[in-house]
Design brief:
This protein is 15% helix and 42% strand. By secondary structure, the chain is mainly beta. The strands form 6 sheets. Strands 13, 15, 18, 20 and 21 form a 5-stranded antiparallel beta sheet that branches. The protein has a 4-stranded antiparallel beta sheet with strand order 1-12-3-7. A 4-stranded antiparallel beta sheet has the order 2-8-5-6. Strand 16 and strand 17 (299-301) form a beta hairpin. It is globular, with a radius of gyration of 24 Å. Pfam families: DJR-like_dom. This is Double jelly roll-like domain-containing protein. InterPro entries: DJR-like_dom (IPR049512).
Length: 407
Amino acid sequence: MLSVQAFDMFRTPKMDESIEKVEWRTYYPFVKSFRNNDTIEITINQSDVFDAMYEGLLLISGKINKTGNGSVAFINNAGAFMFSSITYEMNAKEIETVREPGLVSTIRGYLCYTGEDSKHLAVAGWNYPNAPLINYDYFNFLIPLKHLLNIFNDYRVVTCGKQTIRLTRSNNDNNCLLVTEKTTGGITTSTTASIDIENIELKIKRIYPSNDIRLKLLKAIRADTPIIIPFRQWELHMKPALSEGSTKDVWPIKTTTAVESPRYVIVGFQTDKHDNLNKDPTYFDNINITNIRLTLNGEGFPNERMRLNFNKDDYAEAHYRYTEFFPSYMSCTQKRFLLDYGTFKDRALFIIDCSRRDESMKPSTIDVRLDIEASEGFPANTRALCIIVHDSLLEHLPLSEIVKNLS
């Protein structure tokens, strides 16, 4: 049957004239000191403009210093690993803080990016599965803010008011670089490397609406109409060391409020990879895990044991849960994942979907606990990583310049 639209011969074409002009603006830090452990703060202090922060970019340029004869290269996602934390503030209120943005963005990339996304992010230092394109003494990264802060993936609306991006440099650069030593005449050289950041800039897209839309927005702002900001936060927790030689561990992660109740829990393990120039921190060890169980106030997820066996390449259930994350997270049918069954073994991420629960009996507080089991004793220097994906809801009063959490 033909659609009725096929006969709409006299329809008037609609032109999108809601945007009058688009400009890119560059902002610089107050203090140009980018050494290890330094805090870099970039502020946009204009309340009468509309900025598309979700399209924002961080430009980071510098050089690599090397001593020794070994080869030095950036790891994948090196730009994010240069910082120990990144914070986004609005009107002096913390909206989102990401600890270890290198780890968090790497895990989110494995879960949500496609091959085309990797090509697009090559200038950001992300180019999985290939080596980063920037592999010389000097580098220049252009990193989207949404790669580091998830609010700019979920809340794609222009913002106004005073806004700040705060970066804290890592205490060293060992997680950004990979050193391969050379052996000459039976002697292996000792190579060290570090990074000198010479400049950091924040590039923001400024949008000028048409007069009609601008008047409507200004009227709502003068009335101090509340702006609701919903997004999902990726909150990282770390257990510095599992019990060496043990095959079981219980990890009481946190006690949280009902509003920040976990929707998804992502678990990974790394053996001797932190601050090690000879190891790649974008790999996650499977450590022969057989089962991981999440407990929320006595309710267990998943409801059945996983029964994994990595020694026999029997981890289909873990990989299936990994591939099912994106359709559940985005409420769609499309599958988006970077790790196939073979590569998953060396980058094992264990996904627990707890987004479907009975909310009618929601308690005021929730205890979050992980039970970890392996077929062999945990290796020495093995740390556990857990990302809790939970809802965040804030209210912004644009005239009063007040931002507060909604519970």
